[in-house]
Design brief:
Layout (H helix, E strand, L loop, with lengths): L1 E5 L4 H12 L3 E8 L17 H14 L3 E5 L1 H17 L6 H20 L4 E3 L5 E3 L2 E3 L9 H4 L4 H5 L1 E2 L7 H10 L21 H9 L4 E5 L5 E5 L26 E6 L4 E5 L6 E6 L3 E2 L9 E6 L6 E11 L2 E12 L7 E6 L7 E12 L11
Parallel strand pairs: 1-2, 1-4, 2-3, 4-7, 8-11
Antiparallel strand pairs: 5-6, 8-9, 10-11, 12-16, 12-18, 13-18, 14-15, 14-17, 15-16, 17-18
Length: about 375
């Protein structure tokens, strides 16, 4: 096969490209220039897409003996990922930009260009596995990225390769060193790649501006503090609330609700965060076909953690497919804009990704689909 290997400049994508070469594919490396003004150097493990990253990717391609190109996707990335990220926070959501990047950049814009140029597949350094065309968790649970890939359609998965998903990270680094790849010990990227400072609130504030509102006690309705915009808050947040006095009972307060229209941020106790029901959509079923009825599975609501047993029922509203999720035990920190991903547990082959949808609403009231009632 002709394979286009997306090379970020990190160790995972370098080894993914190397394994694609070793498998006998005709491989070409490509680095995506996603910033209109890339920095010269990374700051430790923060950020990516610097000129240093592009140079690291090029050196890895040279070691592998494959052609290498840099493609400019900066405008598309700003429009589809950064602008959407800012817009989501402005309406009280907490988006995951990695989901959007995979959905609209790497496995849409990039993959489409690859196919148009005659490539058969796109290889990336994501930690996930494809088994008989089905998306499953990676061997390394700590590095698993199936959650941020659950937005991919069956067609997108059919032209994807995840060569490192069957190995733990330690083996990937050791393999990179054995292959003479200089990125073997390069730190992993953390935080949001286009906010290298790590200060998301400042990044959003510079783009959204000041939109004052109140921080309100959910139990008493008392105004506890003023704020400069709902973009500075997310569900489950405990620090940075601007509240001077402790709660009457001395317990910590958490953000339990965000109303972008009024600018009201509601805070309450930890138990006020308990969520029993989630609606999400549009639904993406990784097999390409929705389940015929409710399914018992595990649901994950954020990239790290937030996992609980549930019954997921396919829905359709105004022709748009969705998911109705009845949790068997409550989850906390469930924020609109994140993804809800349904998995079927499989100890032998890795948990199977069934489908996903962006979280649209939540409820603290337990509910069970009628079709599964006793």
């Amino acid at each position: 096969m002709r394979v286009l290997a997306a090379m970020s400049g990190g160790v995972d994508s370098a080894v993914a490209a190397a394994r694609a070469v070793e498998a006998g594919h005709d491989v070409v490396g490509v680095h995506l220039a996603l910033s209109t003004a890339p920095g010269a150097l990374r700051t430790g493990s923060r950020g990516c897409c610097s000129r240093e990253d592009a140079d690291d990717a090029r050196r890895a391609a040279d070691v592998l003996g494959i052609p290498f190109y840099v493609w400019d996707f900066a405008d598309r990335f700003k429009e589809d990922v950064i602008d959407e990220f800012v817009d989501a926070y402005a309406v009280g959501e907490t988006p995951n930009p990695c989901l959007t990047c995979n959905e609209k950049i790497k496995f849409a814009a990039l993959a489409d260009k690859a196919i148009a140029l005659g490539f058969d597949a796109l290889a990336t350094g994501h930690y996930a596995r494809l088994v008989d065309g089905e998306l499953r968790r990676a061997v390394d649970d700590d590095k698993d990225q199936s959650y941020v890939l659950a937005v991919l359609t069956a067609d997108q998965l059919s032209r994807a390769l995840f060569p490192v998903g069957d190995s733990p990270k330690s083996e990937i680094r050791a393999e990179a060193a054995d292959r003479g790849l200089a990125v073997a010990d390069k730190p992993d990227s953390h935080d949001i790649c286009f906010i290298p400072t790590g200060d998301t609130r400042a990044f959003l504030g510079a783009r959204i501006g000041i939109r004052p509102g109140a921080v309100v006690d959910g139990a008493t309705g008392d105004r506890l503090a003023d704020h400069e915009g709902v973009h500075g808050f997310t569900i489950g947040q405990r620090k940075g609330l601007g509240i001077d006095a402790p709660a009457a009972d001395g317990r910590p307060r958490y953000v339990t609700g965000i109303d972008p229209e009024s600018g009201t941020v509601t805070v309450g106790a930890a138990e006020d965060l308990h969520i029993w029901r989630i609606t999400a959509g549009p639904a993406v079923w990784t097999s390409g076909v929705a389940p015929e009825g409710p399914i018992e599975c595990m649901v994950q609501v954020r990239a790290h953690g937030g996992l609980a047993p549930a019954v997921v029922t396919p829905t359709e509203v105004d022709g748009v497919p969705g998911l109705d999720i009845a949790l068997s035990e409550p989850l906390t920190g469930v924020a609109r804009g994140q993804a809800a991903v349904a998995y079927l547990p499989d100890a032998d082959s890795g948990d199977l990704v069934v489908g996903s949808g962006r979280i649209r609403s939540t409820s603290p009231v337990p509910a069970t689909p009628a079709s599964l009632d006793a």
